[in-house]
Specification:
The chain has helices at residues 2-16, 23-30, 38-41, 45-60. The protein is mainly α. The termini are far apart.
């Protein structure tokens, strides 16, 4: 179920942002609210590192005005 929501949120974020970033970027952001799920636990260690790195990088950026 979580994977289904990841795709929906990823597509919505990309549309809202006019696809200014990579698909990986939007997919990473879509996992923010799903880290306490079985789907998160089923990701590979490499995937979780990539997702967490992308999220941390985004949180460190200054907000847009």
């Amino acid at each position: 179920m979580a994977e289904h929501y990841v795709d929906i949120v990823k597509d919505a974020l990309a549309d809202f942002d006019d696809n200014q970033n990579s698909t990986e970027y939007y997919e990473s952001l879509s996992w923010i609210g799903l880290k306490e799920t079985i789907a998160w636990d089923n990701l590979s260690p490499t995937d979780t590192i990539i997702i967490n790195t992308n999220i941390q990088n985004e949180l460190q950026n200054e907000p847009c005005n």
